[in-house]
Amino acid sequence: MAKDLSFSCTECGAAHSKWSGRCEACGAWNSIVEDKPLTAGPKAKSLGGKRGRTIPLTDLATEEAAPPRTRAGVEELDRVLGGGLVAASAILVGGDPGIGKSTLLLQAAARFARNGLKVIYVTGEESTAQVQMRARRLGLDQSPVHLAAETNLRDILTTLEAENPDLVIIDSIQTMWADNVESAPGSVSQVRAAAHQLTTFAKTRNIAVILVGHVTKEGAIAGPRVVEHMVDCVLYFEGERGHQFRILRAVKNRFGPADEIGVFEMTGKGLAEVKNPSALFLSERGTPAPGSVVFAGIEGTRPLLCEIQALVSPAAPGQSRRSVVGWDGGRLNMILAVLESRCGISFTGLDVYLNVAGGLRISEPAADLAVACALVSAREDAALPETCVIFGEISLSGALRPVAQTENRLKEAQKLGFTSAILPVLTKRGGGAGLEMREMRDLAGVIEAVFGI
Ligand code: TYD
Ligand code: MG
């Protein structure tokens, strides 16, 4: 008999056979809740379903291979979608509450509607009057977007069936309620059922559907990860509340590259595209200070320069702190270990703080060298030249490894007025003409050349 999996995690959707305080799959605490089953299926002896149809692959028309796309005309959004909106696709837009998802999607809805799509924006959180108020603030109140304030899934699907739109936006999936599932809206079973019905509907009726999902902190409401595997495209809208930058990041995309980002700025009139994110992320940089390094990174297909800041201070006896914002904590510990073992620079007895400026989050190992230089610069209280960019991966032996897209990184640095670059030895020439190139073999060499230790 199949194992009875009647509990699931509201964070990651993993199924469990019993309740426990911590999800073994994702490590979240207090996130496991009991599932309410769907109404039982038929208990007939035969399989019972109706016979479907199979199509030989070779009989499919070739144009079906490349799905048609509609561009929003917002370059930052179209790029993240992989070149525009694909018909009959399901997209999840996740993010913290208040980060600007509704604003982004209302603006996108208006753009798509202007480009000839029939768009229905279903709001389960606000009244139509509230959405209209926001539209007025964004200068979009004359857009041909249809609104519906509804949470009952059956009613929504009936409406969609009758209206036959090209794009539906569901804001948010956690407020939707399927009446054949016995649990409360927002529970894992409800969110799963609603997402499943909406994505199936999208596929069969050739409609694109965008689901909004709030990232949740407490376990009572299922987070967007529960539906990630059901949709074609998963976008996360990120940013720090205190900063005006917002980043839309594709973490999964069946129709385009993942890891692509779009950069926006939250203004009094909604989200504005940021065409030159490097300039924006470096705009807050003051005079050269110890601990500050400019990293030439790549996000998706695009170069992005940003500032990495480190601070080192004496620790209280026996408890040195390691605190990271915008980068991986494990990676920081690795860099500290390499600095200690391979370069003889110890951070014992010191608190270490690392921050990626502007609320950006970096996951590239190419940032290793920039982080190491920021740490040593902070420890030695020695500022780096203002016009130097740094990148390169550090291996455990302390050697520098070349990184992808060196040429793009160098070009971007040059475009923004940088004059020198510290980087791993190039295996292939190209890019960087006009920059003073300091190609290095290992971390110890860089530390010696830059800080003289
Ligand atoms: P919202 O789109 O409601 O966030 P979400 O749907 O992700 O919960 O955006 C909320 C925040 O955005 C709110 O704090 C106000 C701010 N905002 C602006 O700064 N400018 C604007 O033009 C709009 C519409 C919102
Ligand atoms: Mg909202």
UniProtKB/TrEMBL annotation:
Mind telling me which GO cellular component terms the entry cites?
A: cytosol
> What sequence ranges are listed for the domain RecA family profile?
66-215
Chain positions of motif RadA KNRFG motif: 252-256
Q: Where is this region: Lon-protease-like?
A: 351-453
Q: Name one GO biological process term.
A: recombinational repair
Keywords of the record: ATP-binding, DNA damage, DNA repair, DNA-binding, Hydrolase, Metal-binding, Nucleotide-binding, Stress response, Zinc, Zinc-finger
Q: Where does ATP bind?
A: 95-102
| Entry annotated with the keyword Transmembrane | no
A Pfam family this protein belongs to?
AAA_25
Q: Which GO terms describe its molecular function?
A: ATP binding; ATP-dependent DNA damage sensor activity; damaged DNA binding; hydrolase activity; zinc ion binding
Functional summary from the UniProt entry: Plays a role in repairing double-strand DNA breaks, probably involving stabilizing or processing branched DNA or blocked replication forks.
Q: Mind telling me which PANTHER family this protein's record contains?
A: DNA REPAIR PROTEIN RADA, DNA REPAIR PROTEIN RADA-LIKE PROTEIN
Record comment regarding domains: The middle region has homology to RecA with ATPase motifs including the RadA KNRFG motif, while the C-terminus is homologous to Lon protease.
Query: Which family, according to UniProt?
Result: Belongs to the RecA family. RadA subfamily.
Q: What is this protein called?
A: DNA repair protein RadA
Natural source organism: Flavimaricola marinus
Phylogenetic lineage: Bacteria, Pseudomonadati, Pseudomonadota, Alphaproteobacteria, Rhodobacterales
Question: What is the gene called?
Answer: radA
